[in-house]
Amino acid sequence: MLSRKGLPDDYLLTRLAEDVLQPKFKAVQRKARFVDKNGTCNVAHTNIREQGRFLQDVFTTLVDLKWLHTLVIFTMSFLCSWFLFGMIWWLIAFAHGDLDKQSEDFVPCVTDIRSFSSAFLFSIEVQVTIGFGGRMITEECVSAIVILLVQNIVGLVINAIMLGCIFMKTAQAKRRAETLIFSKHAVVGFRNGKLCFMVRIGDLRKSMIISAAVRMQVVRKTTTSEGEVVPLDQIDIQMDNPIGTNGIFLVSPLIICHVIDKNSPLYEMSAADLQNEDIEVIVVLEGVVETTGITTQARTSYLSEEILWGRRFVSTVSEEDGIYAVDYSKFGNTAKAPTPTCSAKQLEERGGLEMFRRQELAQAKGSVRRRRVKQPSVSQEEEKTHATGQTTNLVS
Question: Per the confidence metrics, is the pTM higher than 0.70?
Answer without folding.
Answer: no
